[in-house]
Structures are given as structure tokens and as C-alpha cells.
């Protein structure tokens, strides 16, 4: 088995077709797998890498977690330097540590934190187009703050999951949901921390919240959407470019919310 390494990985998702490995297309998992095998001198069978979860095409990560088993025992910082010397410039290993052979980047997750950035400029900024969503219309941030309270707790998020999701349950728990306006950068920044998120859930939630802030939905419309359980009523899905996986939590890192996800919810 060798040595199991846990890495914290940041990447610019602009030129990736998502995290999950796919044939004939560039993915984060595919690029990292290739480099890990090069470092291991191309063993047979090839080494596999395991991420904490998938991110979609165009979605970024500030703290994706990946583990893999490596045939040689290399100091953690040398592993970090070795990987970064071969990875493309839109990927960077921030930290490496040796972990127990029982650690699993996906199955041991206790929670995740995502950030969503919205550029508020009248015109779409060409230098932000790959890193922010865009909203040019007036809004009331106090209405958004009130609506965020309706997301806290355990709910059935069926109205907030994209078609094509294969999860057995749409019930999730959100521990924290915040918004702040960064006037220096003219951005609205959301953060969501929960025990797990459904396919496109955050992008759909942000779409609903920005409509609430703009007055095209009632402040507590999220409660109605829970009852309807129908994706069509949520309507808008904001762009992938503004979404960032910020942090992945594991048991012991987050004593306030230590419960692991049931396997069917991952």
C-alpha cells in the first residue's frame, strides 16, 4: 500500500471540465493522477487519487482535499514541492501531510464551506468574468440577510437541486449562511457551510437569494420552495464562475458539527 498522503489543493476551474476524471478532456482529477503517477515512476497498476467530492466545469477550489497511496515514503514538504513542479500553473498543492491508511478524503467528510462571488458592476468586467457571477440591478442586502435565515437547519432541498442528480435523499443541513458587500471590489460575497450540498444547490440558492434582494420574490419565498419541492419554481442557476470550494472539514477539525455524512448523501 505504501504511504497515504492527504493534500490540500487549489485550482482555477476555468479551463477544466470539472474535477472528475473523464476521457479525452482536461479535468483536475485527470491532471493530478497523471502527475502522481509520474512521480511514482509510472507503476502498474496506475495509482488513483480520491477527492472530497466533485466540482463542476468552471468551479474553483481554494481548499479541495485529495488523498492517494504512494509507493515511496517522501517527506510531506518534498511531496508538495515535487507535485507543484510538475502541475500546470492553474493548480497548486498548498499543503501535504501523511495520514493513516484508514483516512478517506470523501468518506470522512463532516462538512464543506463554499463561497460565491458576484460582481455588481453595471458592465460585465472582462477581468472578472471567469471568477465571479454578475448582477447589475439594484438590490436590498437586508432582504437577502433575512432570507438566509430560512436556509439554516435541516431541510429537503428538492427545489434547489439540478435535474440529473442521482442522490437518494435531498435532505441537507446548513449550519451557516452569510452575505457581505465588499464595496472596494464592488462585489457581493456569499458563504455557505453545511454537511453537504446537492448538484448545483448553491448556484440555485444564490439565484433565489439575489432575486429576493432585487424584489422579484418575497423575502421568505424559500419556505414556499421547500413545500413545493419543485426545481422549476427556483428558476435561476447562477454561473459556475463565481463558485469556490473554500474548505473541507473532517471530524476533529470542526468540533461544533462533527457528524459525518451518511454515505448515500455524499
Automatic annotation (TrEMBL):
EC annotation from Swiss-Prot or TrEMBL: 5.4.99.12
Catalytic activity: uridine(38/39/40) in tRNA = pseudouridine(38/39/40) in tRNA
Protein's UniProt keywords contain tRNA processing: yes
Biological process terms in GO annotation: tRNA pseudouridine synthesis
NCBIfam families: hisT_truA
Recorded family membership: Belongs to the tRNA pseudouridine synthase TruA family.
Role noted for this protein: Formation of pseudouridine at positions 38, 39 and 40 in the anticodon stem and loop of transfer RNAs.
Protein name: tRNA pseudouridine synthase A
Source organism of the structure: Secundilactobacillus malefermentans
